[in-house]
Amino acid sequence: QVQLLQSGAEVKKPGASVKLSCKTSGYIFTSYYLTWVRQAAGRGLEWMGVIHPNTGDTTYAQRFQGRVTMTRDTASSTVYMELSNLGSDDTAVYFCAKDKGSGTFSLDSWGQGTLVTVSS
Amino acid sequence: QSALTQPASVSGSPGQSITISCTGTSSDVGTYNLVSWYQQYSGKAPKLIIYEDNKRPSGVSSRFSGSKSGNTASLTISGLQAEDEADYYCYSYAGRRTWVFGGGTKLTVL
């Protein structure tokens, strides 16, 4: 079955960077977009960007341009999301999610989420 | 990339039907038949319940249905049950390989 296993919780100081991982299994890694979504406590879901694991092509939400980098390792079927210059408003749960495919552009499998806390 | 507009909250009694709207623009909801809906329980990852405006993934109850008119998509839940109490989010393709979420709607079953 499809599984997305995310790395553990992180605590970072303002100005630092964080790199999260999302290890996938149960499907052909290179065939489906992987999306990163975040959710601050009590707030809604926010689209951060997407990577195609086959080509490594990425698209980022405008508000994260210059601060976010998404990469992948095809050997381990893992995608990574690095966010730099962290501020307190980056404190959130970060999810990775797999595209359903077939041009549906919907997210049919999700990781369990990783809590990132930014605090001095 | 402005968020799609959803009501902050809706409520209904068991057995009733409710509808959650999701308003976008001609650049996203109005152009692509690619609106999906997600159900999220507190502290959990979202779950896909509708894709491509009105299709249900395997295993999702037929009480959930989606529709769209112009720039507004809608999620209807019929025969409301206590277990439907959750947050609901719409999500639309917005072109140039970008996507946008709605602000989310909290459903309360009275």
Please explain how this structure is put together.
- The complex is a heterodimer of chains A (about 120) and B (about 110).
- Chain A has about 120 residues and is mainly β.
- Chain A has strands at about 5, 10, 20-25, 35-40, 45-50, 60, 70-75, 80-85, 90-100, 105-110, 115-120.
- In chain A, the strands form two sheets. In chain A, strands 2, 4, 5, 6, 9, 10 and 11 form a seven-stranded mixed sheet that branches. Chain A has a four-stranded antiparallel sheet with strand order 1-3-8-7, with no helix packed on it.
- Chain A is globular.
- By secondary structure, chain B is mainly beta.
- Chain B starts with 8 loop residues before the first strand and ends with a strand.
- Chain B has no helices and nine strands.
- Chain B is globular, with a radius of gyration of 13 Å.
- In chain B, strands 1, 3, 4, 7, 8 and 9 form a six-stranded mixed sheet that branches.
- Classes of the chains: A mainly beta (about 120), B mainly beta (about 110).
